[in-house]
Structure of iodotyrosine deiodinase:
Amino acid sequence: MTLFSSFTPVLVTIISILVVIILNSKRKSSKKQDSKKNPKSESRPWVDEDLQDNTELQLGEDAEDDGWKGLEENLQHVPFSSERYPEDEMVERSRKFYELLNKRRSVRFISDEPVPREVIDNVIKTAGTAPSGAHTEPWTFVVVQDPEVKHKIREIIEEEEEINYMKRMGEKWVHDLKRLRTNWIKEYLDTAPYLILIFKQVYGLLPDDKKRTHYYNEISASIACGILLAALQNVGLVTVGSTPLNCGPRLRVLLQRPINEKLLMLFPVGYPSKDATVPDLKRKPLDEIRVVI
Ligand SMILES: Cc1cc2nc3c(=O)[nH]c(=O)nc-3n(C[C@H](O)[C@H](O)[C@H](O)COP(=O)(O)O)c2cc1C
């Protein structure tokens, strides 16, 4: 009995060591299996994480997507007509439109000079003409003009962006951005008279709380972003589109957007500051972006 009790601490130590060794080897083998299952599981934050906010709701069994059943099947079809221009006028119009959009630049120095709200509303109406998967129009444009809310947005973005630049983005990405002279300080979030935040609706919420599938919601909302950029250029306003990495959930909560919405892009909008500069970038010529077959 005495012999046994003097052995007890030794036994306990041996058993503890064995348990630690077994647990460690189990953890390693499960990690190996994970990486075998998904060999491409390396982090690609610009692809996945910028839109992740852990609120992704899959349509489960108890949250059936039966909203489509209420949709009008026999939608009336009406005659369509559009402007038809003589060919030389078409060439002229296409050239002029190209020249207008070719002057668009991402401007990171935005003046606080006021811009009429009606212009912003028209620009958003224009963006809302975008095509969308099954005409689901899966977008919400949040216009922020309240200086206090703009400042809160700036605080959230700068806080997250500092971590992005220091830790999440990695050396290569930060290096690629160096020549654009961007960093986590974003004064334009305070100075621009408007911030437009585009949320993609990952599914629709019908009045009776039913869910509606939003097909290709990200592509659809991204097309709307493109049209928004063209509409801003058309009225002489500037912006710089951004996809604030890891800020989506906090901004969604701040702006009280529902759970089916995820931040896609943020556009500060206004006139350029008097001393605004842009990087001297060149665009690829036609031959490099077009293939004719
Ligand atoms: C999806 C997307 C995300 C972007 N994110 C940022 C950003 O976070 N910060 C920034 O300063 N510019 C951002 N930009 C702007 C690009 O840097 C800019 O479009 C690019 O340098 C080309 O310049 P240009 O827009 O003047 O032609 C983004 C553009 C796109 C399309």
